[in-house]
Write a structure and sequence with these properties.
252 residues; alpha+beta; SH3 type barrels; Alpha-Beta Plaits; 5-stranded antiparallel beta sheet; elongated
């Protein structure tokens, strides 16, 4: 056994792996900066593809010196093998290309606030397999890219992504202008640090019946605030106000 040759191969393999690792980290860092500075969405799918290419070249560089396998023969064999594997990896391939389509077409990108199948949240990442959507409670929804590419979803704008409402029923004889002013003031004070300062509390009235006038208090909260928390604060501060209608009593 030629120990010198074995040691040389081990050293060669270690150096090649170290160089590939350094190149991988450097290119990854540069790629992220370029994506952040460009109009291309910054998602891990692009970084993962580039990293895969780097490590593929790293593998090819050690095949013949270390393992005695010619790179051309390996690539040819890999081409035949990939045809066989493609039948078992159809979903994976579909997810990769769907993810690229979503990103390059700017259909969805990290930072978007979307509603998919009743689940709402911010897109945190689009990787080679799936799109991650996180709601305001910190729950992650993992959606395969191929599924999202075929599913209708809503991408919400800045004015609606942090908007929630509290329903109110106002007495028929109440002065709606005064009620609106009081509700806006009370709700603003109740929200406090939860409020999105870019928007003001709004009050709209949508109709009336025998029991009173139906209205909605529109609240705008920060991205990290759960709607239920804001609605609870405002509901508590509005409870018992003299201009609120007693629907139960009216029905009796």
């Amino acid at each position: 056994m030629d120990w010198t040759a074995i040691v040389w191969k081990v050293v060669y393999l270690a150096v090649a792996a170290a160089v590939t690792l350094v190149v991988d980290r450097g290119v990854t860092r540069v790629t992220r900066r370029v994506l952040d500075a460009s109009s291309i969405p910054s998602a891990s799918i692009f970084v993962n593809i580039i990293r895969g290419v780097i490590w593929a070249f790293g593998l090819l560089s050690v095949l013949e010196p270390v393992f005695g396998i010619k790179a051309t023969a390996f690539v040819a064999a890999l081409g035949v093998t990939s045809v066989v594997l493609s039948f078992g990896l159809q979903d994976t391939v579909s997810n990769v290309f769907s993810g690229l389509g979503l990103m390059l077409g700017k259909v969805v990108q990290p930072g978007d606030y979307v509603s998919v199948g009743g689940f709402e949240g911010f897109v945190t990442d689009v990787n080679w397999r799936s799109t991650i959507v996180r709601d305001r409670l910190g729950n992650d929804q993992v959606i395969p890219n191929s599924v999202l590419n075929k599913t209708a979803f809503t991408r919400k704008g800045a004015s609606s992504l942090g908007c929630c409402g509290v329903e109110v029923l106002v007495r028929p004889d109440a002065d709606l202008a005064r009620v609106s002013d009081e509700v806006a003031r009370l709700a603003t004070e109740a929200l406090g640090e939860l409020a999105d300062d870019a928007f003001e509390v709004g009050v709209t009235f949508s109709g009336f019946d025998a029991y009173g006038t139906h209205g909605t208090v529109w609240l705008h909260v920060r991205p990290d605030v759960a709607f239920g928390t804001a609605q609870d604060r405002v509901t508590r501060v509005l409870q018992g106000r003299p201009w609120l209608a007693d629907a139960a009593g009216a029905q009796e």
